[in-house]
Structure formats: structure tokens, C-alpha cells
From TrEMBL:
Protein's UniProt name: FAD/NAD(P)-binding domain-containing protein
Record-linked PANTHER family: PYRANOSE 2-OXIDASE
Species this protein is from: Schizopora paradoxa
Single annotated GO MF: oxidoreductase activity, acting on CH-OH group of donors
Stretch forming the signal peptide: none
Cofactor(s) required, per the database record: FAD
Family membership noted in the UniProt record: Belongs to the GMC oxidoreductase family.
Lineage start: Eukaryota, Fungi, Dikarya, Basidiomycota, Agaricomycotina
Residues annotated as domain Glucose-methanol-choline oxidoreductase C-terminal: 583-709
Keywords, ordered alphabetically: FAD, Flavoprotein, Oxidoreductase
């Protein structure tokens, strides 16, 4: 059996120092028939039990194990309790200790080295583990000059490097019983155990260009996009570490998988059931509850993108102009479109009945409201015969992140190796940011402090490379909590932060039936939207669901008159914008955990002038829909009631935001973030989650956040149009390969400049590699691009595709 850098399965092993010579084997020895030690020795007895060690994996995910000598039972490798030896080098010496009844063997973590050829071996429960990894090292005994195995601080020195060789056919002696934890881990096979094996202790052994905290719509979009950018950039690729507090709970958006029985037959908001079951809770002051709150975080890969409602409208132009000036032009000119492409925004084919409904609604709406009814914008796919009914292909960040994890290469042992420039940690909670100075004076981010949720709770520091960047995407409560634990609480308070806010959402529902039931299937489900100008000069969003799922929670609008869910419903739902509530805040308790205060600044009232206007709109639209579809309403009740609209609890559809906002206008510097989402007055820290919004808009903010995440990824963190700082000379055609694979290119010479050897032959470009040719100023050349043949990394197709390349500009060759 060959040597390997770490054990992969339970078994009997030789353990040896990483060396070309046949020395440095672990050997079990006995002094005075009492003391038992692991020593370093030449290997001179092939079958001797003294050189054999039973290794039992306690977690393949973290590569942790117990180590027991085969020669003696029941004993296990541990830390000597003898005072004079314990103080050796200040960290102690390894010994072979008896396992007391009911006490499992100590747990070790095998930490692969950077080269992948060896590992260090760390005692997880070492008394000085809080100083960092404490690993096994070869040391010289002061009395006998024997080489023992002692403990020392992890410095990846030559004396701390070990390799393993499994002994085929060896049988484990004794009748020791594995602990329950070991029994549970043995034989476990799951996507998480197979593809997400990185641990904080291993991740900290290198530094990163970019660290992303959180995998929801903000951090998850950035993480997936950076992986794609890296594949295009070749030697310009950045090393990325993604950190997620939760595990792999969902493999995709919850609506892409199985659903509870009966959900396929109704048209309720099915994702809300998953949100309610899997969300966690925030902590509130004093009583610990908030009767007007129904939200909470989700700790899992993808965050709340695993169960969001898929409704993806844009923020209205007027709201952007009045309250979000710094991002208005970038969103409207490019990034909204990019985000809609990412989410595969769905718009159905319109039949004659549906067109008639929209026309009637538009013609009968009050001109002052400026209604323009159109299809709702949904980030999902539906069958043509089931519009807005049973979602398929619903967007979540999980799909991309799991795809990346599953694309790892396997080594000769069949184990998956981490991507060289993109890694992800699950079950790892970032507690704080490491700055270049303490006590709130630090302004440059140097790394993050991480707690392994599945480990012993110790905090581990993971560092940034010089000039590295951190993207904080832990959500509107936990992102500010991380900054508060990083001595930035006063900064947040001084710059308009911590005011967690959610907008008013309110609705009215009607149950109806078709006069001719056959028409129901012909007409199908409809989900419509329009912006509405309000008397207060604000813009609201109105959504109408006709025989379709609403984005509202299922129990929010139960069938008021019948438990029989076969009756279709008409639901009007409105969202009003609001400013950040200055009375809402976040504090830290004694354990440094966030305590949330969130309330409505103005209580919802049906007699509000804006709400009265929307009630009249509802009544008019309801009547026009009745006539256009030939339906009958069942027991119109409460039409003139003072409680006409019912408000949704805050957080009910996970829109709470605004705790680390950017400024509302281009000239102001009164908020936490700059236009590029960097923390004002600081270097290397960016925020990308719902906390960035300076007000609560009239729409679901998910699409806007995804658009800003793409902009952050491609313009700030890793610009895809990477080129030398001097720019492109006016007389030069410059092309860059961002296809992610090798290409062969030939650049024409229509300008008839003096030819060089490069002009006479095609050039092969790897990912991220560029090429420049002298041409005439302002002249446009053609670029013949040859792609690789199928299943080949050397041979190219005979027929090229052609690209235009203008002198003085950078031309990106990529997959269109």
C-alpha cells in the first residue's frame, strides 16, 4: 500500500515522518513496564504491532479521528499528565493513555499541508488550542537523546509533517466499542459529507483575496459569479473563501423538490410552509416576543433564497430617483437586466381572455393613479398550462454553489480536492472582523474570526492577503452584529445604521367561481402587477393573483367561507414604501448575540388617505375582472368594513432591511456605505445583503440586491475587463480570452500595418490571457476564434466564430 497524506477510512496504519528515508516511524514503547510513549524509530519489523496504529475516523467531513496503539488495549494517544514532561516546549509531550470506562479516546484533526503531500496532526482538545493549532512534532528527549513525539505550535515545520500507510489485511485487535458519535459517522454518505469537507482549521492555513460571509441572495450571487469570473481570468484569478453558518438543508429552491401532500392541488403560497418550518428566530427585548413579527433568518446553504417567494419586480424609477440616487443609473442601464437573466425571469404567453382582463383594468383605472397592468415578474418557470401554479426551475443561489462543490476533481484515492481558487466552509459562523488596530480604531480589514458550529466553539482567525476584501452578507441582523462585535457599534449608530425596518404589506381576498367551469382551465391562472401613484406622492406596488398563488403566506389569507380549496380566489396585495424607522434598533446581549427591536413607525390604518385610494382601486378592479371573466363572487363580505385590508406581520415575507445603509443621494456622506457598498472610512470591507438599503421600497428587494451583487462582483471585486492600468493604446487591438478554456485566435490586418511574425500565425490563449496587435487608430479588425474540439484540450475546431475588435478598445472573447 502506498503512502498518503491522510487516512481516509478506518483501519490499521503505519505513521511516518514525511521524508524520503526509511526512518521516522511511530513506535509504541514501554518504559519500566509503566510509562507508554509513541517514539520515533527506524522501521525494522514489518509485522510488529509496536509500529501499527488503529485509526478510527470520527468525521470524514473534518478529517478527524482517534488514534490507538494496536499493541496495547484499551489505550489511546493523548497528552501526558506528568508535570515535567507536560511542560516540554511549553506544550507537552504525547503519551499513550488508558481510556477510562465510558470515556472515548481523544479526537485528533489531520490537517493537509499546502502541497497536498503530507499533513499535520492536531489535538483538538489541547489546553492551549485557543492559541491556534497545537500539532505533533519530533523532539529530542533531554535525558535519553531518544526522539519522542511532543506538541508544538503549528508552524508547518519539517518536524511536524506526517504521512500514512494503510496495512491491508490487518485485523483490529481487542473488543473495544466505538463511541456513538463514531458509529453515526461510519458509513455516512451525503452530499454534505462528500463535497463540503473543508474546516476552519484547514481553511486558516492560507490567506485569501476575497472572503464572503453568507450565501443568500447577496453573498451567494457574489460567490457564484466570482467562480465564473475566476474561470475566465487565468493567472488573474482571485482566491475566494465562502463562509456559511448553516449546512446543506436544501439542494435547490424548496419548490423544485417534493412538497407536502395536497400542495399540488391548491394554489397557495407553498414556499411559505418551508420558510415557517426551517427559519430561526430573532431575540427580542424583555418578553422575548413580538406579536407583530413573523420573520427570521434561515441558516443553510443559500440562506433565505431557498424559500423566497420568487416575485422579482424592479424598484420604480421615481423611488430610485428620490431615495437611491447612487444606484439608479447603474441599475437601469445594465444591472437589472443582468440580474433578470441570472434569475431566468419568466413572462407567460398571453391568451385572449388574459389580454382582455389587462386591457379592461388599464382602461378603467383612474388616470391619476397611472396604472399600467402587466404580467407579474417571477423568477421561475411554469408549464404553459399551469401559469403561476406549480413552479419549476425556481431560482436560488443553492443550485450554483452546489454545482461548484460537485465539480471538484477527484484524486487517485477517489477523494474530492478543493478548487485551487474557490473554497467554501459550512457550519462556520463568522463572529467578528479582524482589523489592523483594536478598540474601534482599526480601518483596514485583515481577516475574520470564525467559530466552527460543529466543533468545540473556539474562534479561529482566517486571514486576508494584502489588499484583500471581505463581503459581509450575513443578513440585516447578523451583518451589523458582526460589525458590533468588531468594535464598530458606535460607527453604525453615528451613520444611520441599526434601524431595522419592513414596509407595510396589506391585502384583500375574494372567493369566486366561474359561471362556466370549463372556462377556468381555458383562462388559466394570472398574476398581474402595476405601480400606483399615491396621494402622498409615494409609489406603491399592486399585485393581483387570479386563481394563482400569491406571494403572501398561506395562512395569512385562508379561505374565508369554505374549507374546500377547489374554489379559486382573487387576491389583491399592496406594498407601500417607507423610510427607515429611527426607533428600531439592534443591541448585543451579554453573550454578544443580537437583540432586535422592530416595530411600525406608523400603525397601519384603513382610513389612511393612501389606503382609501387603494381600496377604491380594488373595488373597481374587482368589478372589471368579474365582467371580463364571467365569474361570481361568493358572499362578498366586509366590502365597506373599516377593516377592509388586513396588514401582514412584519418580516412575514423576509423583506426587513436597512441596518447598514448607503446614502440616498450622490453628494451625502451621512450613511454607513459608499456607492460601491464599501464601509465608509474603511478599507477591504463591503456589505451585500438587505441591510444596505436606505429605505424600504415598494417591492420585494430581492432582484435589486441580486443586481447590486453582480455589480459588486464584476466591477469592484474582480473586474472582468481586467487590463493593464495604462489602458489600451489607440493604435492597438487588444483581446482577452474569458471563455474559461483555451482558444486559438487570428487577428486580421485590414489596416495593412507592417506585419510581424505574430500576424502570420494563430495564437493560442489560455483562460484570462490577452493578446495585442499593432493596428491603425479607429480601424475595426476581425478576430477568428477557434474553440476546442469535443473532449480535447489540444485540438481545435476547423471552423471559427468571428468577433469585431476595434483599435483602442479591449475586446472580451466569451460565451455569448
Amino acid at each position: 500500500m502506498s503512502w498518503s497524506p491522510k487516512p481516509s477510512t478506518d483501519g490499521i496504519y503505519h505513521v511516518k515522518a514525511f521524508s524520503d528515508s526509511n526512518i521516522g516511524y511511530w513506535r509504541h514503547t514501554v518504559n519500566n513496564s509503566v510509562d507508554k510513549w509513541p517514539m520515533i524509530d527506524d522501521y525494522n519489523a514489518v509485522d510488529a504491532d509496536d509500529y501499527a496504529w488503529k485509526i478510527t475516523m470520527t468525521s470524514t467531513n473534518r478529517c478527524t479521528c482517534t488514534i490507538e496503539p494496536v499493541a496495547t488495549s484499551p489505550m489511546a494517544l493523548g497528552l501526558s499528565s506528568q508535570t515535567e514532561l507536560h511542560n516540554l516546549n511549553g506544550y507537552g509531550i504525547a503519551s499513550i493513555r488508558a481510556m477510562n470506562k465510558g470515556t472515548p479516546a481523544l479526537e485528533w484533526e489531520v490537517i493537509p499541508g499546502g502541497s497536498g503531500k503530507y499533513s499535520r496532526i492536531s489535538l483538538i482538545s489541547h489546553p492551549k488550542a485557543n492559541e491556534g493549532n497545537v500539532v505533533l512534532e519530533i523532539c529530542l528527549d533531554r535525558d535519553s537523546n531518544d526522539e519522542r513525539i511532543c506538541f508544538s505550535k503549528d508552524e508547518d515545520s519539517k518536524r511536524q509533517r506526517w504521512i500514512f500507510r494503510k496495512l491491508d489485511g490487518r485485523v483490529v485487535r481487542g473488543n473495544q466499542r466505538a463511541s456513538p458519535e463514531q458509529n453515526r459517522s461510519q458509513g455516512d454518505k451525503s452530499f454534505e459529507n462528500m463535497f463540503f469537507t473543508l474546516t476552519p482549521r484547514i481553511a486558516k492555513n492560507e490567506k485569501y483575496d476575497i472572503i464572503i460571509i453568507g450565501t443568500g441572495i447577496g453573498g451567494g450571487v457574489v460567490a457564484g459569479d466570482l467562480f465564473d469570473s475566476n474561470s475566465r481570468m487565468g493567472e488573474h484569478a482571485k482566491s475566494v473563501l465562502v463562509i456559511e453558518r448553516g449546512g446543506l438543508t436544501f439542494h435547490s429552491h424548496c419548490l423544485n423538490a417534493s412538497r407536502p401532500a395536497g400542495f399540488g392541488e391548491d394554489r397557495g403560497q407553498q414556499n411559505d410552509t418551508f420558510f415557517a418550518k426551517f427559519k430561526d428566530n430573532y431575540t427580542f427585548p424583555s418578553s422575548g416576543t413580538n406579536s407583530d413579527w413573523k420573520g427570521g433568518p434561515m441558516y443553510n446553504l443559500g440562506g433565505r433564497s431557498a424559500a423566497w417567494g420568487l416575485f422579482a419586480p424592479r424598484i420604480h424609477d421615481e423611488t430610485l430617483k428620490n431615495h437611491m440616487q447612487p444606484i439608479r443609473d447603474p441599475l437601469l442601464s445594465k444591472w437589472y437586466r443582468e440580474a433578470e437573466n441570472l434569475m431566468s425571469l419568466y413572462l407567460p404567453t398571453t391568451n385572449a381572455y388574459q389580454a382582455n382582463v389587462m386591457e379592461r383594468l388599464n382602461m378603467t383605472s383612474e388616470p391619476k393613479l397611472a396604472c399600467q397592468w402587466q404580467w407579474g415578474r417571477i423568477a421561475s418557470e411554469f408549464r404553459d398550462d399551469g401559469n403561476f401554479d406549480f413552479a419549476r426551475g425556481a431560482y436560488s443561489t443553492i443550485d450554483k454553489l452546489l454545482e461548484i462543490a460537485m465539480s471538484k476533481k477527484q484524486n487517485d484515492s477517489g477523494e474530492y480536492e478543493e478548487h485551487p481558487n474557490w473554497k467554501i466552509l459550512l457550519h462556520s459562523e463568522v463572529r467578528s472582523i479582524k482589523w489592523d488596530a483594536c478598540s474601534g480604531d482599526g480601518t483596514t480589514a485583515l481577516g475574520v474570526r470564525v467559530r466552527d458550529v460543529k466543533g468545540n466553539g473556539d474562534e479561529i482567525t482566517i486571514g486576508l492577503k494584502k489588499g484583500g476584501k471581505i463581503v459581509l452578507g450575513a443578513g440585516s441582523v447578523h451583518s451589523p452584529a458582526i460589525l458590533m462585535r468588531s468594535d464598530k457599534e458606535q460607527f453604525l449608530k453615528d451613520n444611520g445604521g441599526l434601524h431595522l425596518t419592513d414596509h407595510d404589506i396589506f391585502a384583500k381576498a375574494y372567493t369566486f367561481q366561474y359561471t362556466d367551469e370549463i372556462r377556468r382551465e381555458t383562462i388559466g391562472a394570472m398574476k398581474l402587477q402595476t405601480y400606483v401613484n399615491l396621494p402622498s406622492q409615494d409609489v406603491a406596488l399592486c399585485n393581483i393573483s387570479i386563481d394563482a398563488s400569491s406571494f403572501l403566506p398561506r395562512e395569512f389569507l385562508p379561505n374565508e367561507f369554505f374549507r374546500n380549496e377547489q374554489f379559486p380566489r382573487l387576491i389583491f396585495a399592496f406594498i407601500k414604501p417607507c423610510r427607515l424607522n429611527p426607533n428600531n434598533t439592534i443591541e448585543l446581549d451579554d453573550k454578544k448575540e443580537p437583540v432586535v427591536t422592530i416595530k411600525r413607525e406608523i400603525p397601519f390604518k384603513n382610513d389612511n388617505k393612501d389606503v382609501i385610494e387603494l381600496r377604491e382601486l380594488t373595488k373597481t378592479a374587482k368589478e372589471e375582472i368579474r365582467k371580463a371573466l364571467k365569474i361570481e363572487y361568493i358572499k362578498d363580505k366586509g366590502e365597506d368594513s373599516e377593516e377592509f385590508f388586513k396588514p401582514l406581520e412584519l418580516g412575514g415575507v423576509a423583506h426587513e432591511l436597512g441596518t447598514i445603509p448607503f446614502s440616498q443621494n450622490l453628494t451625502s456622506e451621512d450613511k454607513c456605505l459608499k456607492e460601491d457598498l464599501s464601509l465608509r472610512g474603511h478599507e477591504g470591507l463591503y456589505v451585500c445583503d438587505l441591510s444596505i438599503f436606505p429605505m424600504s421600497p415598494e417591492v420585494n428587494p430581492t432582484l435589486t440586491l441580486a443586481a447590486l451583487a453582480l455589480r459588486l462582483s464584476r466591477e469592484v471585486l474582480l473586474p472582468r475587463k481586467l487590463v493593464r492600468s495604462a489602458g489600451v493604446p489607440e493604435d492597438t487591438v487588444w483581446i482577452m480570452n474569458q471563455t474559461g478554456e483555451k482558444i486559438k485566435v487570428f487577428i486580421s490586418n485590414n489596416a495593412n500595418v507592417k506585419s510581424t511574425d505574430d500576424d502570420k500565425k494563430a495564437t493560442i490563449l489560455g483562460p484570462g490571457v490577452d493578446a495585442a496587435r499593432m493596428r491603425k487608430r479607429g480601424c475595426t479588425e476581425s478576430v477568428a476564434v477557434y474553440r476546442l474540439k469535443y473532449n480535447s484540450d489540444k485540438e481545435f475546431l476547423d471552423n471559427p466564430t468571428f468577433w469585431k475588435a476595434k483599435a483602442g478598445e479591449l475586446t472580451i472573447i466569451c460565451d455569448k
